[in-house]
Amino acid sequence: MSSMFVFIVILLLLAAVFGILGVVLKTALVITLAILLTIAFLSLFAYYWFRYRVYRYRRELDRQSRSS
Fold first, then answer.
1. Is 47 within 8 Å of 56 (Cβ atoms)?
2. pTM
3. Which of 29, 24, 1 is nearest to 11 (CA)?
4. How do residues 45-63 score in pLDDT, each as one tens digit?
5. Buried (b) or exposed (e) across 13-28, using 16+ Cβ within 10 A?
6. Which of 7, 15, 37, 50 lies 20 to 30 Å from 65 when distance is taken between CA atoms?
7. Could you tell me if 15 and 24 are in contact, meaning their C-beta atoms sit under 8 angstroms apart?
8. Cα 5 versus chain centre, distance
């Protein structure tokens, strides 16, 4: 874990030396936000899908209990 941290610090220092640190940070921010938005969208989709499946299951149970 420590070697990975050192590697990231060296990359950031190199980016600062070559004057592209702003671009690197903006790109990292865009990637992070894209991942977070994807997780939020998938979570919302899963939540509504699960609610719909529970609704269908309950409706089927009601239909079976009324018919018997």
1. no
2. 0.66
3. 24
4. 999 999 999 999 999 999 9
5. eeeeeeeeeeeeeeee
6. 50
7. yes
8. 23
